[in-house]
């Protein structure tokens, strides 16, 4: 007789690949026996229904509900087999008589039909009996009644949009009546734990604290559960500091074991990354340094430093075992390919920062980073703060071969890295340390900007207007200026300075030569994008800054790009396209500027290009670029028909820059036009500009709102230096 498992597999119509057999002869005999049975037209197989006793022997699983009474064969397979037997045998009988008609479904022998009906009836009865037994077993389990009711409540609550608020409130109250005091009995079952998660979702803060207190002492066990771990995450995210402080300490002294667990490692890292306090993070990370840091820090962990450098400074004799313990755990997780943990990246940074330069510690660590052939480790590192710093240090400490291999791992992810708050820093570090600029330009620029010319424009536009990605394009032209690295990116400067210190002993090329060569290689991509999409670039502040910096720093033919920029200034600068009525109401009737002259960043960019260089605050003079742009003549041909509108409008300083430019050939013509419209200039110089009016209204509104609380009267706010300053300067020049 075949075993129960073999019967089940055979009846389901599938066979495990490479399933073991006793010998080939037995297999062949079985096959022959089956064929001979199939050709027999007279034999019928009577299926004996499985008794309740046999069902109990096979186990209490409800999976048997899906099988027939013959030990596992579905009912439709039983019928189809009998039908095939009949059709084949009956066809054989009639084939000898040429005048005989083949049998139909209605002409089946009555005895065979009765036998099939009896078999079907007995199978149904056995199936019903099995189902009844399964229900009885479920009903006999603890909390069966409560569990059934909570499931019905959960089924209703999960359909949020279909349940009125009043009914939901009643259901939540009933749910808490059932689960209060019994929560531990619900959380370790895959179906009932969902009920507790729903209860947390609709619970108030006190109810959440009640659930957290009931589960106290079990959080480590829950973290190791495939389903209950999500319950911990829900409690932490929707709870407060009191709930956090109940849960997190239960993981202390078990970090080294839990970080290796396939389920608990994820919730441990989520806690470390998302909700743990600074001190709790330090306690969790310290356990990576060895068993003693887990055993002796409970209760007084705040007395111990979190930084490995401070620990090693206090106890230098422990350096070897600490570094060995840390590296072993790091290597273990890398070998298991669980390389996405922020906790792992922080531990790797601690090791790298304390490894002795020029020793095997650094060399071995870089080899570990390169050892992942698929590059998952390096890719994951690039997207966390500590991980990106680890990669930057590896690029700085590595030799030419190491840098080439590390850079190769990022071939498919450079676009994602450029827009990432941490990933873009890896690209900047590669600019700073790789001496082979040809390798850098071929490895980074085509992948970052795309090899397809059409997609290049799209990708550059996306990079230009992203606060992180724009640094990967403009860093080679602007360097570490405040305009490119605002306060939010100030930490990038610190890492790059750290790279500079290491680069002094590991790189040979002069930094300025390296930067110049990379800027030259990138220039054709950026100049082409300005030529093609200048009208789109000038509509944003970042776009105008991009245009200015590229035109000042790029190398190559800039004439086409300058002409495209000048064309964006054509037309009436005073024209403003009003918003639709509904949008005006939503925006307090503020119109949108539809010309570059009506945007402060647009006028500033044109003024800088006309001046031909950056303004140096120290010398209070323009530092012209070489070769000169000569943009003044190109721009004048596009604005000369509306020169007075420019001189009296928001971008009047563009006209001031024209007459102050040393290489502008039409200066006398401009001065003559301005003298002929002196009255308009005088009026503009005295009247309040639209920008000043908006600023004044905003200030008055702010003062009134502040005075409303004190009860004091407010005075009208008169703007200082009201009037168009550019127009006033032009009056002085003429």
From TrEMBL:
InterPro entries: ARM-like, ARM-type_fold, CPL_dom, PUM-HD, PUM3, Pumilio_RNA-bd_rpt
UniProt-listed SUPFAM superfamilies: ARM repeat (SSF48371)
UniProt keyword Repeat, yes or no: yes
Biological processes per GO annotation: regulation of translation
Biased composition (Basic and acidic residues): 124-139, 683-702, 713-723
Keywords tagged on the record: Repeat, RNA-binding
PUM-HD domain location: 111-484
A Pfam family that the UniProt record links to this protein: CPL
UniProt biased composition (Basic residues): 32-56
Signal peptide: none
Annotated Gene Ontology cellular component terms: nucleolus
Annotated spans, Disordered: 1-144, 681-734
Keyword Transcription regulation on entry: no
GO molecular function term, any single one: mRNA binding
Function in brief: RNA-binding nucleolar protein required for pre-rRNA processing. Involved in production of 18S rRNA and assembly of small ribosomal subunit.
PANTHER family (alphabetical): PUMILIO HOMOLOG 3
Record protein name field: PUM-HD domain-containing protein
Species of provenance: Oidiodendron maius (strain Zn)
């Amino acid at each position: 007789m075949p075993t129960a498992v073999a019967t089940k597999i055979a009846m389901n119509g599938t066979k495990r690949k490479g399933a073991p057999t006793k010998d080939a002869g037995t297999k062949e005999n079985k096959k022959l026996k089956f064929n001979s049975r199939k050709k027999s037209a007279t034999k019928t197989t009577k299926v004996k229904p499985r008794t309740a006793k046999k069902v109990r022997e096979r186990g209490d699983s409800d999976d048997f509900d899906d099988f027939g009474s013959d030990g596992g064969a579905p009912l439709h397979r039983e019928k189809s087999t009998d039908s095939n037997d009949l059709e084949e045998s009956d066809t054989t009988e009639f084939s000898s008589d040429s005048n005989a008609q083949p049998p139909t479904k209605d002409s089946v022998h009555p005895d065979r039909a009765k036998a099939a009906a009896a078999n079907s009836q007995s199978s149904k009865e056995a199936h019903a009996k099995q189902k009844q037994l399964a229900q009885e077993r479920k009903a006999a389990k603890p909390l069966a009644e409560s569990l059934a009711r909570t499931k019905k409540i959960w089924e209703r609550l999960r359909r949020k949009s279909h349940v009125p608020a009043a009914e939901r409130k009643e259901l939540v109250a009933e749910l808490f009546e059932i689960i209060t005091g019994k929560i531990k009995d619900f959380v370790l079952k895959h179906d009932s734990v969902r009920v507790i998660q729903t209860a947390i979702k609709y619970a108030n803060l006190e109810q959440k604290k009640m659930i957290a207190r009931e589960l106290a002492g079990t959080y480590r066990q829950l973290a190791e559960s495939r389903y209950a771990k999500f319950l911990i995450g829900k409690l932490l995210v929707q709870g407060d500091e009191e709930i956090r402080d109940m849960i997190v300490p239960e993981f202390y002294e078990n970090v080294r074991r839990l970080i290796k667990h396939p389920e608990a490692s994820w919730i441990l890292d989520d806690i470390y990354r998302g909700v743990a306090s600074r001190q709790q993070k330090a306690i969790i990370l310290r356990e990576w340094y060895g068993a003693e840091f887990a055993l002796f820090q409970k209760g007084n962990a705040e007395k111990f430093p979190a930084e490995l450098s401070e620990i090693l400074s206090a106890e230098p004799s422990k350096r070897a075992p600490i570094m060995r313990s840390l590296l072993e755990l790091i290597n273990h997780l890398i070998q298991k390919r669980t390389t996405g943990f922020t906790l792992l990246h922080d531990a790797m940074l601690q090791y790298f920062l304390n490894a002795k330069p020029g020793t095997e510690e650094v060399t071995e660590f870089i080899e570990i980073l390169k050892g992942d052939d698929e590059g998952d480790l390096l890719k994951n590192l690039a997207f966390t703060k500590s991980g990106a710093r680890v990669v930057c240090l590896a690029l700085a400490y590595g030799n030419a071969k190491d840098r080439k291999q590390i850079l190769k791992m990022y071939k498919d992810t450079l676009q994602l890295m450029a827009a990432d708050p941490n990933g873009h820093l890896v690209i900047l570090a590669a600019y700073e340390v790789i001496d082979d600029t040809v390798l850098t330009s071929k490895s980074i620029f085509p992948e970052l900007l795309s090899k397809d010319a059409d997609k290049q424009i799209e990708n550059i536009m996306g990079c230009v207007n992203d606060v992180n990605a724009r640094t990967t394009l403009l860093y080679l032209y602007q360097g570490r200026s405040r305009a490119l690295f605002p306060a939010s990116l100030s930490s990038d400067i610190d890492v790059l300075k750290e790279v500079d210190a290491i680069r002094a002993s590991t790189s040979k090329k002069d930094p300025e030569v390296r930067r110049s060569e990379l800027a030259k290689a990138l220039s054709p991509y950026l100049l082409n994008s300005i030529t093609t999409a200048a009208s789109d670039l000038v509509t944003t502040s970042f776009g105008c800054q991009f245009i200015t910096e590229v035109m000042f720093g790029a190398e190559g033919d800039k004439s086409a790009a300058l002409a495209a920029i000048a064309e964006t200034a054509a037309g009436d600068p005073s024209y403003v396209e009003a918003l639709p009525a509904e949008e005006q109401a939503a925006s307090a009737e503020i119109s949108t500027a539809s010309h570059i002259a009506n945007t402060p960043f647009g006028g500033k960019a044109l003024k800088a290009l006309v001046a031909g260089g950056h303004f140096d605050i120290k010398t209070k003079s323009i530092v012209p670029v070489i070769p000169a742009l000569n943009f003044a003549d190109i721009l004048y041909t596009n604005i000369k028909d509306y020169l007075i509108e420019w001189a009296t409008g928001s971008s009047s300083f563009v006209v001031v820059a024209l007459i102050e430019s040393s290489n502008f050939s039409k200066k006398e013509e401009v001065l003559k036009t301005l003298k002929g419209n002196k009255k308009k200039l005088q009026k503009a110089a005295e009247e309040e500009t639209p920008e000043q009016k908006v600023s004044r209204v905003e200030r008055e509104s702010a003062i009134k709102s502040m005075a409303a609380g004190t009860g004091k009267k407010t005075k009208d706010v008169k703007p200082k230096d009201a009037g168009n300053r550019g127009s006033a300067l032009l009056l002085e020049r003429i």
